[in-house]
Amino acid sequence: MTAQLRSELLKLRSTRTTIGLLLTTVGVVLLGVVAQGLSFTLAELASEDKQRDLFGSATGAILLAIFAGVIVMTSEFRYGTMRPTLFAEPRRRIVVGAKLAASALVGLVFGAVGVAVALGAGEAILVGRDVDFAISEGNVATLVVGTIVGSALCAMIGVAVGALIRNQVGAIIALAAYSLAVDAVLFAAVPSLGRYLPAQASNAFAGLTGPDLLSPAAGAAVLGAWTIVFAAFAFLRTERTDTP
What we know:
Layout: H1 2-13, H2 16-39, H3 42-45, H4 48-55, H5 60-78, H6 82-88, H7 92-128, H8 137-165, H9 168-189, H10 191-194, H11 198-205, H12 216-240
Helix pairs in contact: 1-7, 2-5, 2-7, 5-7, 5-8, 5-9, 7-8, 7-12, 8-11, 8-12, 11-12
């Protein structure tokens, strides 16, 4: 397992796509912070809830972490390297487990970068607009832990989706369609049910505001459960089907 994990991490370090997604994370989070920080009135920006939303732009890292996880798995099928990978390590569960672990580490990095950008840019906006820092230390800690750990869990879900769908373009399109047509719509229409979906659970885990979201602890539990379910299906799919 250790040798396979080192191999997966080497692949990630040498892949420009991962670096590109990380840079995209910086841009997405920065854009979210600036857009919110400049659109809020001074009175709104002085409230703790709005500041939680402002710094909560860090959760943009979670979406990019999912795509990174998808690419970790689907690149093997896209470029035909899965067969050599399995030749070097025939135990498929070890290969999948190493990819899940490697993607979790990458997710931690994505989350940490997103948090750093959001906190740095958000604080600069508050200082620039002469607004006091109102968010509590507890909520900052929730944002930091929830975003970083949530990114790791969602990156693992991305690997599982890649194992289930295998086609890289198809997996990315499926995730984008789900995010727009299922998650957002269901949460808006039936929030009592939609809040248990992965994206809303990750938002709750990070401490975002909203009357229909779960508590951070409940969001963490739900997101963890989704990760286990997806990982289990990924192991079954990989063990029981032929490798193209």
